[in-house]
Amino acid sequence: MPDSKIDGVAEQGKSKVIGQASATEREPNSSEKFCLWLATDEILNPFDIVEAEQMAGTRTFGLVTNIKQVTDAPSHLANYISSDFGNPAITPQTPRQGVNVAEVNVLANYDPVEPKRYPAGIYMPVQNGAPVSFAVEAGIHIALGIDKMFEYEKEHRERVTIPAGLIQMSNGTRARVFLDKRYVLGPEGAHINIAGISGLATKTSYAMFLIQSILQSVGAKDIAVILLNVKQNDLLVIDRPRRDIKPEQLEMWDYLGLQPQPFTNVRYLLPWGKQTQTTGMPNCFGEPPDQFHIYAYSLEDVVGNRSHPGPGLGLLIRVPDPWDTLGALVGEIQQGIMNGEKAWQNVRTWNNLLNGPPLMDKGIPQKHNQVAASSVGRFIRILRRVVVNHQSGLFVEQRSPRRAANLGEEIRQIQGGQTVVVDIANLTDEERSLVFGHIIKEVYGMYAEATIDERHELPRKVIIFVDELNKYAPARRSEGESSVIEYVLDIAARGRSLGVVLISAEQFMSEVHPQVIGNCATRVIGRSDASELSDPAYRFIPQDIKAHLTRLDKGELLLSHPIYRQPVKIEFPIPAYQAIGHEHLG
Any long-range contacts for 356-359 (C-beta under 8 Å, 24+ apart)? Predict the structure, then answer.
């Protein structure tokens, strides 16, 4: 367990005082905010955490949100006139008295002598003239509520802290930041969402670091990980150690109490392609990993059987269906094939379904039960486009178990301590929805339908990471709405009670379904533009902090967690698997 050093807060009175709290007639201090003037030459930046002396010997911690300079000039015009009516080369005739003033949001109050004396803290306004200094690491932990995690660990002898990065302050102070396992893996909360501009937000890199941190902190043997590779071969190298880690990165890993190591016990599942039949090579970007398995989809794989239903043909139909005509037809097809009904006994391949009875006769669509021939024809055209005309090679007439695996069976075999990477980078949008929906459905079914005895055989937790979440759970219903959205909503709502955790990423949080975002206990924001930050999806970020998110550097993130009283800016070490040259863009 990490060293909390809470007792060290009592020594903070020796910290250098950088200014004093300031309350004026026009800008009074309150229980929520206070201001402080800074001594000459003192440097303070937004997201620094400071502490002020408070009543009854307690201390109030706060997050700096803005710094401004105040002078005795009544207007900008007065400054212009005093410089010989706008001559920048001369010394102003009227020297101005000025001071830098910082605005601070209150985080917490703490009694260093007797912490339990004021259990709720003292949230009187910070008094005018109260000395203010930088907080030390132990103080930062108290300010954010991390000290409560340490207390829980001491009392229950159970590790709940997960290293999530570092806070770097203007005076050089560093503080480790931890997430609470109970709000990451359940049962109190679950799910993590990461948003930000592509490349600059380092979303994938942070997700991989955080998953590695979870495995090392909580225990890898109880957790299974499923990663969807959506960009080139970014995640097809996670078992190779990085050879060029800089000393400062190694030091950051060490300071967080983690080992800079690649993922172990990795299983790669790569898709069947149009040339796989002759070359034996999968449809992936660049060279495949040393060890891999290929997966493909026949009609029977998509439909499934009674004991293990497949993902369903519905995942391939991404068109408006206001009267559920196509939905009804899809249901009849699946039930007919699964139950071996007489009309469907000879339908075993994609070609059978698309060109033979009962749906087609000599190239002409046929009426089926209550579904008109025109609707049958529409279904055939849509399905033919997906599985024949525009497919990447994923759909095959007959799947040989010796050459290609059933993805659902592979997912059902996952074990604790194992990481499964499913490559979908070169697939079409419909194929990606099918694969992701299949994974979600299998994992959800494994845990939601498992008996007590079966639960003992499953990993205690399953983490699923997917990028471009907006494609599968879009915020607005439209013609191109993802057919997998219902599965994602179920995982977001019930996953924490089942042991299924979703770690997701996208460029724009505003494009993700609000129920998914609302169920994510932890949210991470990289650099974003002002128009995106004005969306209601970002209402959890205080307005005076949003402006700073437009200028975050690469590798800097804003972290919001239920334990924290305000979002904080963090940095993190780069993942320890070998970079190929493009995945470091995040």
Answer: 359/333
| pLDDT (average), residues 305-310 | 88
Provide Rg for the chain, Cα atoms.
29
- Sign of the C-alpha dihedral computed for residues 10, 12, 14 and 17 taken in this order: negative
Report the pLDDT value the prediction gives residue 115, as an integer from 0 to 100.
77
Respond yes or no on whether the N-terminal peptide bond of residue 187 is cis (omega within 30° of 0): yes
pLDDT, one tens digit per residue, over 473-531 is 998 765 445 578 888 999 999 999 999 999 999 999 999 999 999 999 999 999 999 99
- Residues 6 or more apart whose CB falls under 8 angstroms from that of 40 comprise none
Distances (CA, A) of 125 to 30, 48, 114, 189, 483: 5, 20, 21, 32, 52
Indicate the SS3 state at residue 404. Answer: coil
CA distance readout (Å), 275 to 271, 281, 296, 393, 404? 11, 7, 13, 8, 13
pLDDT of 123-170, one tens digit each?
999 999 999 999 999 999 999 999 999 999 999 999 999 999 999 999
Rounded distance, CA 480 to CA 317, Å?
A: 10
Domain spans of the chain, in order of start: 6-156, 177-296+394-580, 299-389
Distance CA 131, CA 386 (A): 68
**DSSP run (H or E) holding 242:** none
pTM for this predicted structure: 0.92
pLDDT of 479: 47
CATH of 177-296+394-580, one of 3.40.50.300, 3.50.50.60, 3.30.70.330, 3.90.70.10: 3.40.50.300
